Amino acid sequence: QVQLQESGPDLVKPSHTLSLTCTISGDSFTFTDDYHWAWLRQAPGKELEWIGWIAPTGIIYYHPQLKIRASISRDASKSLFILTLTSVTPEDTAVYYCARSSAGAFAPWGQGTQVTVSS
Fold this sequence. Notes:
Layout: E1 2-7, E2 11-12, E3 18-26, E4 36-42, E5 48-54, E6 60-62, E7 70-75, E8 80-85, E9 94-102, E10 105-109, E11 113-117
Parallel strand pairs: 2-11
Antiparallel strand pairs: 1-3, 3-8, 4-5, 4-9, 5-6, 7-8, 9-10, 9-11
């Protein structure tokens, strides 16, 4: 089985860019296997929000409201994928998760990383 681990800054200033990395370990895999590799977040007091994912084809899909600011990329040689979110505001404060998805279900998940946007 694979394991996912998020990493990145825990504090980002408003208007700056957030960059998070999800490192995949464990069983061998390729990004062209029949899974989507996703980023999600949960802000305080709010429901879990899907940010976007990379399909096996390499096509990337984003939440419509985040599409302008979010970017997801992958590095197969390093077994990781990256979320970049530009022009962050305090409303982007959340626990960010990476996860693998198949048939609409997410598993496994990373443990999550808290990101706070504050000056």
